[in-house]
Design a protein that fits this description.
By secondary structure, the chain is of the alpha+beta class. Helix content is 33%, strand content 25%. Strand 2 and strand 3 (22-27) form a beta hairpin.
């Protein structure tokens, strides 16, 4: 698996607001507001406290998530989510 670690560059400055099952997140680095689900919020929270690789994210999230439902590749939903969070500018890779 890929050994790239991920981090949240703007973690201390991000503003969160919960509304029903969604989370609104304002990113001051981009000036954009995003609507996220609980899974994305949990991963951003994890990466906000310290960088983590996909394997570390999987280990942490396995106990709190049902997202890994792809039997052939249980990491796929998490890889897809990391890719989307990276595309949105909410996380950044940190080579190890």
């Amino acid at each position: 698996m890929n050994k790239t670690a991920w981090m949240v560059p703007a973690w201390p400055a991000m503003l969160w607001e919960r509304f029903e099952d969604s989370f609104f997140l304002f990113n001051p680095l981009s000036g954009e507001t995003h609507v996220l689900n609980e899974q994305a919020r949990l991963i951003l929270e994890q990466l906000g406290t310290r960088p983590a690789t996909l394997e570390e994210i999987l280990a942490r999230q396995a106990s709190v998530s049902s997202a890994g439902t792809d039997r052939e590749d249980p990491a796929r939903p998490f890889r897809d989510l990391l890719s989307e969070l990276d595309r949105l500018g909410l996380i950044a890779p940190v080579p190890r």
